[in-house]
Design goal:
Elements: H1 2-6, H2 8-25, H3 32-35, H4 41-56, H5 63-76, E1 83-85, H6 87-98, E2 100-103, E3 106-111, E4 114-120, H7 125-129, E5 136-140, E6 143-144, H8 152-159, E7 166-172, E8 180-185, E9 187-190, E10 194-199, E11 204-209, H9 216-229, E12 234-238, H10 247-255, E13 263-268, E14 274-278, E15 289-294, H11 301-311, E16 316-319, E17 327-333, E18 339-348, H12 363-367, H13 369-376, E19 392-394, E20 400-402, E21 411-412, H14 422-430, H15 432-443, H16 453-459, H17 464-478, H18 488-503, H19 508-513, H20 518-527
Parallel strand pairs: 11-12, 12-15, 15-16, 16-21
Antiparallel strand pairs: 1-18, 2-9, 3-4, 4-5, 5-6, 5-7, 7-8, 10-11, 13-14, 13-18, 17-18, 19-20
Helix pairs in contact: 2-4, 2-5, 9-10, 10-11, 15-18
């Protein structure tokens, strides 16, 4: 911060020059010979200024960092969704959206200075050689993996490596007299974007997606086929908390539900060029009924799915007004390993509505919109949702829909105050429930041996004593007095769901937590069956 304050006048002084330079590079209407010629005085001005700072400025200045800060400043003044990705962040961002990475296949905590395995990923490299939940990985190829000095990032680097390479692990297992040795061959480990796919009722299947990555359509299709095989003639597609991702993946998922040649969406750039996307003949659920669950954090590609189905009178949108992001970004390489995701067009739903929220009052006001929604009561009462008659559109079957700021659901479900209170949110974000559950399992993992996933989900109960233990644990860890009198049952539900996740994974958390979900209950009612 001291650096930025000291050189703020300098940063502001070159911001315009850098902006012109970056803007020129991204102006695809310019001929290459004009854009990059030595006669481009704007580019020359920037180059000279950087050279002057490098060679003549009184203090040493990292001009690379100046450019990074300035690029971020420029993008902040364009729109809220044009962003800069530094070279250091590029691998992480790319990996997350690619949908997999090369590793040994465990989820873990850094627990008391040691890597504690929560669960080996099913059919992954570690599971195949016998590494289990509760194991501590002590060494990897003679490198120690314990102690305060190691960050999670450093640990992950030691466990990752080229595909099919081997790593020798030393593992401590409770009850074993000596360290165990395992040789693990690294493989592709999925970063799953489908959290769960299971049956809610005899004919209603449920699929939850957490983002739209490269692998999402394949995961979704596999889940859809599984549910059809189990008798699903209706699907609840849960896009709550889903921030979006690749537009093309959203189009593929919509295509599964829409009949041939139905318009999915169209995009328009600043030159007025329009590109339309239509459903094809490959859809496998065109005759089935679909419910799309959305909330105030469903954005971008999630809204493409909801808007396309709503505007084509397909299925029912259930929940609360979505985020309101109708801008399309394109990732552009900046030549040094960094990139910019620049907004290049707007997308419109089939009826022609833009669902992008206004952003003219700056990024802070834009991102504070959630608080505004909370304060004006629209998360509890659909009548409080602000709409404009000038942004009214009509679907082919005569349903009125609105543009101007998110997808308004067909069936409104208010926020569940019991499950969304500040204390529970704090506990989840800080990981206290996860750590407590891990310690609880460590005391006696044997008692869960032989307990099937379904038996646990349907019949296992969390005792009042365990909730009191968690209360005491939290008071020690957080250093403050906390009681769960007002939401005792909700805490039980989260503890049980977290135990299910650590024992079984693969959507077990959602199966448990959905048992007390009022939006799921509403969808079951709408589907015509209750179980």
């Amino acid at each position: 911060m001291q650096f930025q304050k000291k050189y703020l006048p300098l940063l502001l002084g070159i911001a315009i020059a850098v902006g012109i330079f970056v803007g020129g590079k991204l102006n695809f209407t310019d001929a290459p010979d004009r854009l990059f010629s030595s006669s481009n005085s704007k580019k020359d001005k920037l180059n000279r200024l950087i050279d002057y700072i490098d060679y003549d400025y009184v203090d040493d200045v990292n001009t690379d960092s100046i450019v990074d800060v300035t690029v971020n400043g420029i993008l902040d003044n364009l729109d809220p969704h044009s962003v800069y990705i530094s070279k250091e962040d590029m691998d992480r961002v790319t990996e997350n959206m690619k949908g997999d990475f090369v590793g040994i296949g465990v989820s873990f905590y850094t627990y008391k200075d040691t890597i504690a395995v929560i669960r080996s990923i099913e059919n992954g490299p570690s599971a195949k050689v016998g590494i289990k939940g509760g194991d501590r990985i002590i060494m990897a190829d003679n490198d120690t993996l314990y102690g305060d000095r190691l960050s999670d990032g450093e640990i992950v680097k030691k466990l990752k490596g080229p595909i099919n390479t081997k790593v020798n692990l030393k593992v401590y297992r409770k009850g074993e007299p000596e360290l165990l040795s395992f040789t693990v061959k690294r493989g592709n480990i999925p970063i799953k974007s489908m959290d769960a796919a299971y049956m809610l009722t005899n004919d209603l299947g449920y699929i939850k997606l957490n983002r739209f990555a490269e692998s999402t359509y394949k995961e979704f299709k596999k889940g859809l086929d599984k549910l059809k095989g189990l008798g699903a003639t209706q699907i609840a597609l849960d896009l709550r908390e889903n921030p979006g991702g690749f537009l093309g993946i959203a189009e593929q998922i919509v295509d599964e539900f829409l009949e041939d040649d139905k318009l999915i969406l169209f995009t328009k750039n600043k030159r007025g060029n329009i590109e339309k996307s239509f459903a094809t003949s490959k859809g496998d659920f065109e005759k089935g009924n679909v419910f799309v669950l959305i909330d105030e954090n469903s954005a971008s590609a999630s809204e493409i799915v909801a808007g396309a189905l709503q505007d084509n009178d397909k299925g029912t949108i259930v929940g609360r007004r979505s985020y309101g992001k109708g801008l399309v970004q394109r990732e552009m390489d900046l030549g040094d390993g960094s990139a910019v995701r620049l907004t290049v067009s707007r997308y419109f739903t089939p009826t022609g509505r833009s669902i992008q929220r206004p952003y003219g009052n700056g990024n802070k006001a834009y991102y504070d919109d959630y608080l505004k929604r909370l304060e004006n009561g629209e998360l509890l009462d659909s009548d409080k949702i602000e709409v404009a008659d000038s942004l009214k559109f009509t679907t082919p079957k005569g349903k009125i829909v609105y543009g101007g700021g998110g997808i308004i659901p067909d069936v409104f479900v208010p926020i569940d105050k019991a499950m969304q209170n500040e204390t529970l949110t704090f506990l989840k974000r800080r990981g206290f429930i996860g750590y407590f559950v891990f310690e609880t399992l460590e005391k006696d993992r044997a008692k869960f041996t032989g307990l099937s996933r379904q038996d646990f989900i349907e019949n296992y109960t969390i005792s009042d004593d365990l909730v009191l233990e968690f209360q005491d644990y939290l008071n020690i860890r957080a250093g403050s007095k906390v009681t769960f009198v007002a939401y005792h049952d909700e805490v039980k539900q989260y503890i049980k769901a977290t135990i299910a996740d650590q024992l079984f994974g693969n959507g077990a958390f959602e199966e448990v937590i959905n048992q007390r979900d009022i939006m799921i209950d509403e969808v079951i009612k709408l589907s015509g069956a209750e179980e």
